[in-house]
């Protein structure tokens, strides 16, 4: 039957269609990216809409679905979206960052096609071009477990996505000009929950409704630019069940610190008096606290939400202790039937240690952020495409950054150039993120999930490995680093491609605090990596070059 394809198309919401084939099901979306004028904080401003929605449409998928998204760029600047946390197995062509993709030019379109292979969980997508992330174009992406795979909790009554943001009333172009002129971003102007902030004047529509005594799943993601946000719900506790693709030990929390780029899934039971309640998100680790609220309404509700909001925790020691309470659920099934804990990461020998220290420089009136003294610059030709076409040597050198920083990195001269590490296929690697600054950091790695084995104050030394969690650290895609602290992650680089390791603090990523891991399969085989797709946008050096010989089995 290989040559015969049977397809049924069903219309779905958000410009989507579902195709059922002899292979895994297909979801088709058509997205129209435009500017619009909204007043999220009460001041009219330009925002980026997808299909007239802010935040953008939710993608509701199931493990192994094929997702096809035709993105029409109708704004006046080149545009790209990344699918943060989607591993893009063998397929960094679809990652949607400037090291893998030419941006979609104004007035043109590009179709992403990727499979959410062997993944479950809660994720976000957002723009990676310029400062577009500050204007919108972000939204939730969920991957449900397949029906036959047991999930370690009962089916909730409903499943809600909560996108949190710190927010500026300045346009993305004004913010970009500010950064380009050598200045950093000031404090944001407010916080949003699903693009809104309830006024508390009795006229607010509820963001979500709950039936009494029923349990609901909330997927809470921080798609903001720089601030950790603490999330809580008046008079309700939250049972944590999943984060960034892993089922976790189900602890109960009154509030959760959601660092930039991170996602959590919690269960909330409607077991309080029937009325309105506020969900609250507020900035952490700043003197001036900014707060947003949104209404959850009981369906048989009889009254307004109390104006008294639950207090947020203070200081980052509380947040560090919360991180230490997160544990992988070793007995739960993953996206496949085997238990998550069947992979014994703690007994694998480390083949390479990379210690990354972030730093900042204002030399020559230009603000740059760096890792180990190298501030990444995107060449006009995406790194991955240059590599595939055999012209990488014309654009960048591998391994110009050392695996550990020089002694006085804070005062070292920063070099601005493409920052590409050559990583050996299938090696097991330890990456240390060390933060000598007074500000929070949050890092994301494309193409993989990793084991976040430690987050500790001070500086890292090899002796600190004695304190790693080598049994049930959560496998995830984003890790925070507290001020004057470090974090350690472990992973196997078994996904061939070009993968971005970046600060989730977007001004830092925009100004160079990121790098790429080039993971090449020596076999040049389709078993390890897909060929460049026929519809790949070409730009820069490769625009008119003949296509290289494709990979074969």
Write the layout of secondary structure elements.
Layout lengths: L7 E5 L3 E5 L5 E13 L6 E6 L8 E4 L3 E8 L7 E4 L24 E7 L5 E7 L11 E6 L14 E9 L4 H9 L9 E4 L14 E3 L4 E8 L6 E5 L4 E6 L2 E2 L4 E2 L1 E4 L4 E7 L6 E8 L7 E8 L17 H10 L26 E10 L6 E4 L2 E2 L7 H6 L26 E2 L3 E5 L3 E8 L5 E5 L4 E8 L17 E2 L1 E4 L3 E8 L4 E7 L2 H5 L3 E7 L33
Keywords: Glycoprotein, Signal
Pfam family, one: Cu-oxidase
Family: Belongs to the multicopper oxidase family.
Account of the 3D structure:
The protein has 553 residues and is mainly beta. The protein folds into three domains: 26-144, Immunoglobulin-like (Sandwich), CATH 2.60.40.420; 158-313, Sandwich (Immunoglobulin-like); 347-520, Immunoglobulin-like (Sandwich), CATH 2.60.40. It contains four helices and 35 strands. It has helices at 172-180, 316-325, 383-388, 506-510; strands at residues 8-12, 16-20, 26-38, 45-50, 59-62, 66-73, 81-84, 109-115, 121-127, 139-144, 159-167, 190-193, 208-210, 215-222, 229-233, 238-243, 246-247, 252-253, 255-258, 263-269, 276-283, 291-298, 352-361, 368-371, 374-375, 415-416, 420-424, 428-435, 441-445, 450-457, 475-476, 478-481, 485-492, 497-503, 514-520. A hairpin with a 6-residue loop joins β3 and β4. The chain starts with 7 loop residues before the first strand and ends in a 33-residue tail after the last strand. Residues 1-13 have low confidence and may be disordered.
């Amino acid at each position: 039957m290989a040559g015969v394809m049977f397809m049924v198309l069903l219309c779905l919401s958000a410009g989507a269609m579902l195709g059922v084939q002899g292979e895994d099901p297909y979801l088709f979306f058509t997205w129209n990216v435009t500017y619009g004028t909204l007043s999220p904080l009460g001041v009219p401003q330009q925002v980026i809409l997808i299909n007239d929605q802010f935040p953008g449409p939710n993608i509701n998928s199931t493990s192994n679905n094929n997702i096809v998204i035709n993105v029409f760029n109708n704004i006046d600047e080149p545009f790209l979206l990344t699918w943060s946390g989607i591993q893009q197995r063998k397929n960094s062509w679809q990652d949607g960052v400037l090291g893998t993709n030419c941006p979609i030019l104004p007035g043109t379109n590009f179709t992403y096609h990727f499979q959410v292979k062997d993944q479950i969980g809660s994720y976000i997508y957002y723009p990676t071009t310029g400062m577009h992330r500050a204007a919108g174009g972000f939204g939730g992406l969920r991957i449900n477990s397949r029906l036959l795979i047991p999930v370690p909790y009962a089916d909730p009554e409903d499943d809600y996505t909560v996108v949190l943001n710190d927010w500026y009333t300045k346009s993305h172009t004004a913010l970009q000009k500010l950064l380009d002129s050598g200045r950093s971003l000031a404090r944001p102007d407010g916080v949003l929950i699903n693009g809104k902030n309830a006024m508390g004047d009795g006229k607010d529509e509820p963001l979500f409704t709950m039936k009494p005594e029923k349990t609901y799943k909330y997927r809470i993601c921080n798609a903001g630019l720089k601030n950790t946000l603490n999330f809580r719900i008046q008079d309700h506790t939250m049972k944590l069940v999943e984060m960034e693709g892993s089922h976790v030990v189900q602890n109960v929390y009154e509030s959760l610190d959601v660092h930039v780029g991170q996602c959590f899934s919690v269960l909330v039971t409607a077991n309080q008096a029937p009325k309105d309640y506020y969900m609250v998100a507020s900035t952490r680790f700043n003197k001036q606290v900014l707060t947003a609220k949104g209404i959850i309404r009981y369906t048989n509700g009889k009254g307004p939400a109390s104006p008294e909001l639950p207090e947020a925790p203070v200081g980052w020691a509380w947040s560090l202790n919360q991180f230490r309470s997160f544990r992988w659920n070793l007995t739960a099934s993953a996206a496949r039937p085997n238990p998550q804990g069947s992979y014994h990461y703690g007994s694998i020998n480390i083949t390479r240690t990379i210690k990354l220290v972030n730093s900042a420089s204002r030399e020559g009136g230009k603000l740059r952020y760096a890792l180990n003294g190298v501030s990444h610059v995107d060449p006009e030709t995406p790194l991955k495409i240059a590599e595939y076409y055999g012209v990488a040597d014309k654009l960048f050198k591998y391994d110009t950054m050392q695996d550990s920083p020089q002694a006085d990195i804070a005062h070292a001269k920063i070099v601005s150039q493409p920052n590409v590490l050559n990583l050996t296929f299938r090696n097991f690697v330890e990456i240390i993120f060390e933060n000598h600054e007074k500000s929070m950091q949050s890092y994301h790695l494309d193409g993989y999930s990793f084991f976040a084995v430690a987050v500790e104050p001070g500086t890292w030394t090899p002796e600190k490995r004695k304190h790693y969690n080598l049994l049930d650290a959560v496998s995830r895609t984003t890790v925070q680093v507290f001020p004057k602290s470090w974090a350690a992650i472990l992973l196997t680089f078994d996904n061939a491609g070009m993968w971005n390791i970046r600060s989730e603090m977007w001004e830092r990523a925009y100004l160079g605090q990121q790098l790429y891991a080039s993971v090449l399969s020596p076999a040049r085989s389709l078993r390890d990596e897909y060929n460049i797709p026929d519809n790949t946008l070409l730009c820069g050096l490769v625009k008119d070059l003949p296509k290289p010989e494709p990979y074969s089995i």
